[in-house]
Amino acid sequence: MMKRTISNNQNGMVSIIVTMIMIIIISLVVLALGQVTRRNQQEALNNQLAAQAYYAAESGVNDATAKLLAGYLPSPTDATNCTNFITSTSPATPTPLNNKIDGNNVGYTCLLVNNQPPKLHATVSKSNAVVVPISPSGSGGAGTGLSFTWAEPSGVNIASCASFEPAVAWGNCPAVLRVDIYADDGTYDADHLATQTATVFFVPTAVRTPQMVNGGSVYSIRAGCTGAQCTGTLNGLNSGPFVDGKKYYARITSIYSDAGTIEIAATNGSTRFVGSQIVIDSTGHAQNQLKRIQETLQVTPEGKLPVNALSSASGICKVYNIAPGVDLGNGVGNPDDTPGDCN
Questions:
Q1: Would you report the helix, strand and coil content of the chain in percent, each value rounded to 5?
Q2: How far apart are CA 225 and CA 245, in angstroms?
Q3: Three-state secondary-structure class, residue 173
Q4: What whole-number distance in Å separates Cα of residue 147 and Cα of residue 233?
Q5: CA-wise closest residue to 110 among 67, 45, 59
Q6: Which pLDDT tens digit goes with each residue over 114-170?
Q7: Partner of 124 for a Cys bridge, out of 104, 142, 226, 254, CB 3.0 to 4.6 A?
């Protein structure tokens, strides 16, 4: 009779289990790499589509600008309806805009044009003053004040910035804003211009103090700073608010540091401004990607004026001759009537 022997050797089973585990790990690694690759491909496609959508939005701005320059006058509907400006025509612009760049895949779908924006913007630096026309509309005859808002640098102790200081001591405090505002009533002789112009210095402080000013004078008004921005408020000129239908000019200058972008708005929240700026809002698309941009056009070119008639980084020598042989340049008479020097 033969005796059966049963082996208990488990080596083969262990090998199978180890192999299965390795296959699972390798499969997971391959799947992860595949997902990373697909994600990178999708991100690259999205970036490409986003760039196409952005350029499509820019095309909308360019087409709107060209249409306006050709003589098209925007209607109130153009500021609220996405397609009205695209499809509207006029004798000066008889053809609707073609908002499709690549069939239905790429183009701009919404183009809003607002020629009565609720806010005006200007970029102000120490080296240039900017002249902004201001014509209120829609205040219902009650008039309104104007607010001027600009950026406040981060990490500033605003309590130390409450008074004028030499530029070297001003440090990182927000810029002081100088606004020379003129009420245009059609009379332009020198004396009248002086009485119709008020000069206001908006000085950064922790508390805002709105004020009404009279023409022909200089005022210092506290502009409240909140940690992100400073806002100064001018309630009106010559004991009255800024009224509909009247045109004003604001010459804005930045002192001590660049103020950057200035925002001008009406304090009543409902007044809009005509004849100064046009805001174009364009949304471009490329398949499922959308990009929206806004551009501001100056109805009249924004005036860039030097801050001073004459400026120097060191010193300025002024020589006055008031009579032949009298020289005030160095206090010594000059018989040959030529100006003296400043040495």
A1: 25, 35, 40
A2: 32
A3: coil
A4: 4
A5: 59
A6: 999 999 999 998 888 889 999 888 766 567 889 999 998 888 888 777 677 777 778
A7: 254
**CATH code for the domain in which residue 127 is found:** 2.60.120.380
Does the reported pTM lie above 0.70?
yes
Give CA–CA dist 307/249, Å, rounded: 16
Selection from 250, 48, 233 nearest residue 129 by Cα: 250
Distance separating alpha carbons of residues 327 and 133, to the nearest angstrom: 44
Percent of the chain topping pLDDT 70:
82
Query: Is there a domain that residue 162 lies in?
Result: yes
Give the C-alpha separation, 177 to 163, whole Å: 13
Write the pLDDT tens digit of every residue in 315-343.
Answer: 666 665 555 555 544 554 444 445 555 55
**DSSP annotation string for 247-282:** EEEEEEEEESS--EEEEEEETTS--EE-SSEEEEEE
Q: Which residues form the domain of 207? A: 119-274
Contact 242, 181 (CB under 8 A): no
Structurally, the chain folds into a number of domains equal to 1
